[in-house]
Amino acid sequence: MYIHVITERFFNQLISLLMNGIIGLGKYLFAIPMGIFGIMHFIAADQMAAMAPGGKFMVYFTGLALVLAAVSIIIGKMDKLASVLLAVMLLLFIIPHAQNMASDESEMFNILKNIAMAGGALLYAGQAKDDAVIG
User: Fold this and answer.
1) 0.90 exceeded by the pTM?
2) Domain ranges of the chain
3) What spatial distance separates the first Cα and last Cα of the chain, rounded to whole Å?
4) 17: which DSSP letter?
5) Which of 1, 43, 78, 119 is the most buried if burial means most Cβ atoms within 10 Å?
6) 1-11: per-residue pLDDT in tens?
7) DSSP string, 62-125
């Protein structure tokens, strides 16, 4: 009986440790692709300019916003504000995709992707520890 209690306690602690480790990866699995998307905006600005309202300036601006949000999330400074602003930007990205839906039905995938990523940003903002700007 005593060995069963020790074994059960050990496995519960092991599972808890593994789950916390996996959950801890979440911010990196969210932030790193955002940073890469931002870098891609700088690399392919000429090709993306035709798709963006505001042209090349807006591509650079959103690329910078994506990189800064990723850095903020990774280092944990002003990450709540960065996540909320990232979510707002991702939701605003839906507008041009919705305008193009009449000519391209595949835009629905981009709309759903942006909604999902905005949801992830808001989930992260809900658990972010740095409430220097947003309490």
Assistant:
1) no
2) 26-127
3) 49
4) H
5) 78
6) 666 667 778 88
7) HHHHHHHHHHHHHHTSSHHHHHHHHHHHHHHTHHHHHHTTTT-TTHHHHHHHHHHHHHHHHHHH
